[in-house]
Design brief:
Layout (H helix, E strand, L loop, with lengths): L5 E13 L9 E17 L5 E5 L4 E5 L10 H12 L7 E7 L9 H17 L8 H13 L6 H8 L4 E6 L5 E5 L7 E7 L7 H19 L18 H25 L7 H13 L6 H12 L4 E5 L6 E7 L3 H14 L6 E5 L6 E2 L2
Parallel strand pairs: 3-5
Antiparallel strand pairs: 1-2, 1-12, 2-5, 2-6, 3-4, 6-7, 8-10, 8-11, 9-10
Bound molecules: adenosine-5'-diphosphate and magnesium ion (MG).
Length: 361
């Protein structure tokens, strides 16, 4: 593999059509990449040192991994660390970052950052790391170095997605199917509503949900909740664990049902699956907040085919499947509902499936 002196790489954020909190249960997810991405202009250095700047923070950080790196630069240091842990000789580099992925909104600016940096370092160093193996390495950076117990969905979406397609990913086998999602061809739009709800308790609550799922699988004697059926869940005595597990089991089923409809080109018909996914996150998994519940209700009342929170929860974004010519009315209705409840105005924007990580020059 040949090395490179410099270049520009990009990796996108993502929205998850359906399949929430299923990735770390070895289950199914269906994200697509956003037309918003993080770009990194990178140049190789002749010493094992990394200097990273971000237009977002206005900061420049230099590290050589002899000391722990904290703050936003930990996402970059984590990628270098994970590559080294996997036995790669990582080239030192200067990395300059820009991004238009909304941060901390559940659209995965963190994976966009990791995957852009990973692509750059792999190409600069001529490292033999096949694309299908990259998501797990980027996830390891976030899990083990940054300390966020996320599943593998975000890094997979940012790396593997194709334009015009959603990514059906089996998080156990990492098997991938690119599912065509021609929204415009059917006069449809997916509208994202960034609720701008302040994230609180996110990290602890996310970890608690993951722990509950692992506990439920252990009690059932299964490797992961991916292997559980609804009938199995009657063996869970703790009603809270039962509800948590029920979300995952029913959500996996909803992903598979969504895939079946999309394979048939019946996009409108996935609406009720999106809406029941939201109800499951609200009632069984308890990861929604009033802002996202309000956004879903207002979008449905204004004629959306379906709507759900997308991303890890406790704030963040909602997506709504709408007729393109109703999108503005739905966005207005959500804005009015927010005003009536005294919430900050939401940001509404349509999204289309964009490509995954790529070298730009
Ligand atoms: P999300 O992935 O949903 O956007 P996270 O909390 O997982 O939310 O990740 C957001 C964090 O990622 C930010 O707080 C910041 O530390 C880091 N980050 C993401 N993009 C950038 C960037 N372009 N520059 C600096 N830090 C970034
Ligand atoms: Mg993230």
């Amino acid at each position: 593999m040949s090395t490179l002196d410099s270049g520009v790489w990009a990796a996108p954020g993502r929205v998850n059509l359906i399949g929430e909190h299923t990735d770390y249960c070895d289950g199914f997810v269906l994200p697509f990449a956003l037309p918003y991405r993080t770009e990194v202009t990178a140049a190789r250095l002749d010493r094992p040192e990394w200097t990273v700047s971000s237009s977002l923070t206005g900061e420049t950080v230099t590290f050589d991994l002899s000391e722990p790196v904290t703050g936003w630069a930990a996402y970059v240091a984590g990628v270098v660390w994970a590559l080294r842990e996997a036995g790669y000789e990582v080239p030192g580099a200067r990395l300059d970052l820009t991004s238009d992925v909304p941060g901390g909104a559940g659209l995965s600016s963190s994976a966009a950052l990791e995957c852009a940096v990973l692509s750059a370092l792999v190409d600069l160093g001529g490292l033999d790391l096949p694309v299908p193996h990259r998501p797990k390495l980027a996830q390891r950076a976030e899990n083990a170095y940054v300390g966020v117990p996320c599943g593998v969905m975000d890094q997979s979406a940012s790396t593997l997605c194709r334009e015009g397609h959603a990514l059906f990913l089996d998080c156990r086998t990492m098997a991938v199917e690119h599912i065509p999602l021609d929204l415009a061809g059917q006069g449809l739009q997916i509208l994202v509503v960034d609720s701008r709800a302040p994230h609180q308790l996110v990290d602890g609550e996310y970890a608690a949900r993951r722990a509950a799922c692992e506990k439920a699988a252990e009690i059932l004697g299964l490797p992961a909740l991916r292997d559980a059926t609804l009938a199995d869940l009657s063996r869970l005595d703790d009603p809270l664990l039962l509800r948590r597990a029920r979300h995952v089991v029913t959500e996996n089923d909803r992903v598979l049902a969504t895939i079946e409809l999309l394979r048939d080109g019946r996009i409108r018909e996935i609406g009720p699956l999106l809406t029941s996914s939201h109800a499951s996150m609200r009632d069984d998994f308890e990861i929604t907040v009033p802002e996202v519940d309000t956004a879903v209700e207002a979008a449905l009342a204004a004629g959306a085919y379906g709507a759900r929170m997308t991303g890890g929860g406790f704030g963040g974004c909602v997506l709504a499947l709408v007729d393109a010519d109703r999108a503005a009315a739905v966005a207005d209705a959500v804005g009015q509902a927010f005003a009536a409840n005294g919430f900050r105005p939401p940001h509404c924007f349509p999204v289309t499936p964009a490509p995954g990580a790529t070298r730009l020059s």
